[in-house]
Design brief:
166 residues; 9-stranded mixed β-sheet; elongated; DNA-binding
Length: 166
DNA sequence: GAAATTTGACCATA
DNA sequence: TATGGTCAAATTTC
């Protein structure tokens, strides 16, 4: 495989399929173009590869991989690579699910999430709360800054969305 | 006709 | 050498 460049920010989201529809990929506010799909060993479902539609216009190097979880077909594992430099930005919480709430794990490195800060987001408010154990209010803009701000010292490694409560 | 998706081949890495 | 990531031609959709 071609390894991604060192220092590139990556993070992973676990995203439930919208409304229980396996074909309804959650929208994160960006426009993606699919450039490949591969069957992965030890996984029943193929992995899809996307890059930013504006790659050629803006040289935007953002990419993402979408993998349906083997043990939970209603959940996607979405891995983002790099930042968007195309000037577009999400218009809401990166992904809104049915339940509305999710938690975010922000680590300093992929192997160290012990220093992570927690964040949560609600569909009703569309206002994430970010803090370290304590609840601190931030705006959506602040939240997307953490997600995509190239100046940020944090690496956003894992977004763990809570499953819809049925 | 343009843009997006599909799919098999190619290639780098472990 | 097996696996995973990307390329690019063919096909589909708008």
């Amino acid at each position: 495989m071609r390894r991604r460049k060192e220092g590139r920010r990556t993070w992973t989201l676990k995203v439930p399929a919208l409304s229980g529809n396996l074909d309804a990929m959650p929208d994160d506010g960006y426009t993606w173009r699919k450039y490949g799909q591969k069957n992965i060993l030890q996984s029943r479902f193929p992995r899809s590869y996307y890059r930013c539609t504006h790659k050629h216009f803006y040289g935007c190097e953002a990419k993402k991989q979408v993998q349906r979880l083997d043990d939970d077909p209603y959940t996607y594992d979405v891995t983002y690579y790099g930042d968007h430099s195309c000037g577009t930005s999400p218009t809401s919480c990166p992904i809104i699910n049915d339940a509305g709430a999710f938690s975010v794990n922000i680590g300093a490195s992929k192997d160290d999430d012990s220093r992570g800060a927690m964040a949560s987001c609600s569909t009703n408010e569309r206002n994430p709360h970010i803090g370290t154990g304590r609840e601190t209010d931030f705006s959506v803009t602040d939240f997307t800054d953490i997600l995509f701000d190239s100046r940020g010292s944090y690496i956003l490694d894992t977004l763990l969305y809570s499953k819809p409560q049925v």
